[in-house]
Amino acid sequence: MESVSEVGLTLRDYEKDFLLFQKNLPELKMREPNKFVAFKNGSLITSGLSVEEVSKKLIIKGIEPSGTVIEFVPKEEIRMIV
What we know:
This protein is an alpha+beta fold. It has helices at 4-31, 51-60; strands spanning 35-40, 43-48, 69-73.
């Protein structure tokens, strides 16, 4: 079982990777349009057409998908009206 400080560190790392994903989104829209991408430890690890494909690639690399930022990169901006 992880300690509170380990969980906090994990969440902080996840947040950093998510912010990096958002910062790189304009470039990713050109390089990886309509794909799912995985970021971990400040790097783009892999991409694929589905979350399942990305997860399988991460597992093959020995990376736990649940601790990895996996996000969809839309080719065009998506707007939601609520």
